[in-house]
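Homework help thread (please don't just give me the answer)

Our assignment gives two proteins as sequence + structure token strings and asks us to describe the second one. The first is just a warm-up. Here they are:
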Amino acid sequence: MNREQNEERQAEIAQTPGEMLRAAREQLGYSQKDIANRLRLRLSVINDIEDNRFEQAQLATFTRGYVRSYAKYVGVDEKSILALLDQYGHAQPQEQEMQSFSRRTKREAHDSRIMGLTWILAAVFLGLTAVWWWQSLQVQPSTHKESTVKAEVSAPANEKDSNYVSTLEENGAATVTKADTSPSSAAVAQPESANTSSQSNTSAASETAASSEPATSNQSIANQADTSATEAKPVDVQTPAAEETVAVVPDLQLTFSGDCWIDIKDANGKRLETGIKKAGDKLDLDGKAPFKIVLGAPGVVKMNYQGQPVDLSKYPAGRVARFKLPQ
């Protein structure tokens, strides 16, 4: 009953939230310091509330909570004091502003994550493009070198073959000339002996027969020489080509049965080959030994060093193999 009377009396006297709380505090005999200690607030905050300075920075966010706690402690109806606070002009704009700020902060954070992901994807794309371009530059010089080596090898082989054929032709011509000359000498000797042993009446007939016989022999010998030279040519021409093939065996020969990344350097540090090779690719490489070799998938590679097979079974499949040749 006394509390209702106090509230009615306070409503008649007090017109503002601060005055109402101050009147209730003084009626109970509390000082501002007592209220500040009890609510665990600074004394300046209690003073600002009682003076209706609600727009102060330290009260802007928590004004309603402070006023509610103060009213509860001094026995003032919370709903009444909050309604009076709203009438006084301090409603809840701060809460709306805080919600709007929080929503904007979340949106900005989301946009920042999207932009960050976009930049990362762009960087990865540029990196992959640069790697592809670099590997293309490395593969082109190697292909050009292989073509040059093959052209240089084929040119000497053809030159040696043509020289050998010319030699055979010269030898065949010399053989024919010699065969033609020898029967002529025999033809001269035979008529002379015939003239010495025969009579004068039969000498002319004997000379005619002797002359025809050597001519026939000359023609037969020349035909045999031509035939033997012709038969010997194909066999002898093929022999230098076979020897030349053995002489140009490359230092390294690689055959791939699957995709494999490789990197091969010689003793001078010159990169002979690098990049990804596909199934069915073959490489012939020359350089100064020892060679530094890196194979991404040794299980799909067959390798020969100076014509001899290299055992790659000791390197586990699926792991990078690094070694030198000769070891």
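The one we have to describe:
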Amino acid sequence: MSNLNRFLGGSPGSVLVRLIFLSLLVGAFLAFYEITPFELIERLFNWIASVFDLSLETVLKVGRWILYGAVIVVPLWLISRLFSNRR
């Protein structure tokens, strides 16, 4: 088996026929749902942006919770350390 056949996963002719067939199926699916390739890419980028926004919102919310807790926990910890060193 030549390096080209190994890379392509078969002979160039059979790979070309498979790619044309799969392209036809995917193209028919997209045409049936009236989706253009540009819309598909745009939706993908919008989805990635929404996941990023959701992740950023979650990180900010957790950071806020840490700050709220630190306002109570850190002074109590400091007071407990000051009193424990006096013994």
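TA reply:
I won't write it for you, but here's a hint about the kind of observation we're looking for: Residues 36-87 form one domain.
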